[in-house]
Amino acid sequence: MSNNKLLKNLKELVKLPKNVTIGAYKVELVRIPHDVAYESSDYQGSFVSKPPLKIYLDEEIIDMGGMDAVNLVIHEFCHLGFYQYGMKDKEEEHIVNSYGNFLTELLMRSELKEWLLWQMTKS
Asked: What is the reported pTM?
């Protein structure tokens, strides 16, 4: 089996989770067709802060994997962090501390950990 085929098969095993829990917040990850993402408002992803919390992600970017997919997912989760930690109108130190805590949770304890590690090391 070629290396490319092996990587593709392994990539199928490490899928983006359907839900991610960060603290008290459970977020559903919804893959949307590329055309829908760009026709509706020219975006690659979108965080919806009304319950039930959702993050919509351009499936073409997610399927390509790699740096762009990781950037998109982390970007949208940063919107959750902004919402979760109530950072509107906060001082710089509060914002930096909140994002440090939030990103630690995202990278170390969430259901995204395995997918992010795969994307960063194998993609």
From this structure: 0.84
